[in-house]
Specification:
Layout (H helix, E strand, L loop, with lengths): L2 H12 L9 E10 L9 E7 L12 E4 L5 H11 L6 E3 L5 E3 H7 L8 H11 L2 H6 L5 H8 L4 H7 L7 H5 L8 E4 L10 E7 L2 E4 L2 E4 L1 H9 L6 E6 L15 E4 L6 H13 L5 E7 L2 H4 L3 H10 L4 E6 L9 H7 L1 H9 L3 E6 L4 H17 L3 H13 L3 E5 L1
Parallel strand pairs: 11-12, 11-14, 12-13, 14-15
Antiparallel strand pairs: 1-2, 1-10, 2-7, 3-6, 3-10, 4-5, 8-9
Helix pairs in contact: 2-7, 13-15, 14-15, 15-16
Bound molecules: flavin-adenine dinucleotide and NADP nicotinamide-adenine-dinucleotide phosphate.
């Protein structure tokens, strides 16, 4: 082995390797609600301490968190099954634990697996459910499951009886949730910040809770163990600070998170290129997250331009793609200067509409046909100048 290789091996061996199998058990340092009075949402800022862990990350990475299920929902599931929770089961790691613990930490008890539905249908002789599970009924099943959870099926079919181990065998594993990191390690040593929208909804007569976002919002304090690891944001990276490359960031809602990290990093590294941010939320008064920070970065030149779209502050919706279109000529000039375009946030609606706005402005301001605009966008992707982190 060469001297260089020997050095690399030694230094990488010294670095702690945290991953899914060996997560860092971190702790919350601070939390605050970002949405203000009158907001229709509940979006929160979390600061998690990495003190003494050696865990490192780059702006653009995400944090993977192991959540826990809501204790009231666990109790409801146990009661529906006629269990106390003290029954012993073997969890997916092979450890023997009380059923209540397994249902809290290891298994998904919200969205049901088809295996469980099939077992309930068989045990309860539920023909309708059996029919819905036929391969040709895939779409109807999906519609039927929207807003329904494991508890609904247990309550609807009390005649379906399970042994504790048999029951957990029909559940999916509780999986980690990813959150785009909203801080730069250079600006916030030993900390990782997150911007999380709390998912709650009401369906079929019950209040429902998104597992991880409500765990964070309602049940985590400074003493709660938070197992986590870094999920690298492949390609969602800033240009080197000494490069002139302009960046354009589009991050409505919680999509703002990685761009707060980018701007913190740009400030600390005194990055040269221009930076333009598009942010959107429902109301300026209650939902303009991190407003003071963005305005300070605008004032000191860390951020060159800021455009906002508050969708519900007027009779008709205004979204980030409308601001992009209004600024199409300048956006096109930035692209021609080699700008990288980053998009983060909602995948189902926003990302497609913003993509369309990008095609449209390239056609209109670049004087291109639809096909030529599509080629231009494809080339941007190949050159890694169009990067998306959408969920
Ligand atoms: C790379 C990446 C980065 C991400 N970054 C962030 C981030 O920075 N901030 C952030 O907040 N999130 C982020 N997310 C999303 C995050 O990982 C979680 O998906 C989100 O917090 C919801 O998780 P949960 O456990 O609270 O909800 P879950 O328990 O997973 O429940 C969500 C599910 O509930 C159902 N559901 C939701 N609303 C309704 C409704 N109205 N009616 C019926 N059913 C409904 C849907 O099936 C939905 O999939 C990111 C995701 C990825 C992949
Ligand atoms: N699939 C869904 O129906 C749905 C709905 C809500 C949230 N979500 C998910 O919930 C999570 C958190 O959402 P979030 O709080 O970050 O914010 P978000 O729901 O994405 O909302 C942020 C802003 O984007 C606006 N918006 C809605 N549709 C848009 C579109 N087509 N193009 C551009 N902007 C659009 C919203 O306006 P308005 O709210 O006024 O329309 C709001 O002003 C995300 O994972 C998101 O994917 C999904």
């Amino acid at each position: 082995m060469s001297a260089t290789n020997a050095t690399q091996t030694a230094s990488s061996a010294a670095k702690p390797q945290f991953n899914r199998k060996n997560p860092l058990v971190a702790q919350l340092k601070k939390a605050r609600v970002l949405t203000g009075e009158g907001s229709e949402k509940d979006t929160r800022h979390f600061e998690i301490s990495l003190m003494g862990s050696g865990l490192e990350y780059e702006p653009g990475d995400s944090l993977a968190l192991f959540p826990q299920n809501c204790p009231e929902l666990v109790t409801d599931v146990l009661e529906a099954l006629g269990f106390t929770g003290g029954e012993t089961v073997t969890n997916p790691d092979g450890a023997e634990v009380p059923l209540r613990q397994a249902l809290t930490e290891s298994y998904s008890i919200t969205q049901p697996d088809k295996k469980l539905l099939a077992a309930i249908a068989e045990k309860a002789g539920a023909k309708n459910l059996e029919t819905l599970l036929l391969p040709e009924r895939k779409e109807q099943l999906q519609d039927y499951l929207w807003g329904r959870e494991v508890i609904d099926f247990l309550l609807a079919h009390p005649e379906a009886k399970f042994e504790p181990q048999e029951f957990v065998g029909f559940l999916k594993k509780l999986v980690v949730r990813l959150y785009s990191i909203a801080s730069s390690l250079k600006a916030c040593p030993d900390e990782v910040h997150l911007t999380v929208a709390t998912v709650t909804f009401h369906s079929y007569g019950r209040d429902r809770k998104g597992v991880c976002s409500t765990f964070l919002a309602q049940r985590v304090d400074e003493s709660t163990p938070l197992p986590c690891f870094i999920s690298p944001g492949k390609g969602f990276r800033l240009p080197a600070p000494e490069e002139d490359t302009p960046i354009i960031m589009c991050g409505p809602g919680t999509g703002i998170a990685p761009f707060r990290a980018f701007l913190q990093e740009r400030k600390v590294t005194n990055a040269k290129g221009d930076a333009w941010l598009f942010f959107g939320e429902q109301h300026e008064k209650s939902d303009f997250f991190y407003r003071d920070e963005f305005e300070a970065w605008l004032a000191d030149g860390t951020l060159t331009k800021l455009d906002t779209a508050f969708s519900r502050d007027q009779d008709h919706k205004i979204y980030v793609q409308h601001r992009i279109a209004e600024n199409g000529a300048e956006f096109w000039q930035w692209l021609e200067r080699g700008a990288i375009f980053y998009v983060c946030g909602d995948a189902q609606r926003m990302a497609g509409d913003v993509d369309q706005a990008l095609h449209d402005l390239i056609s209109q301001h670049g004087g291109k046909t639809e096909e030529e605009a599509a080629d231009y966008v494809n080339q941007m992707k190949k050159d890694k100048r169009y990067r998306r982190d959408v969920y």
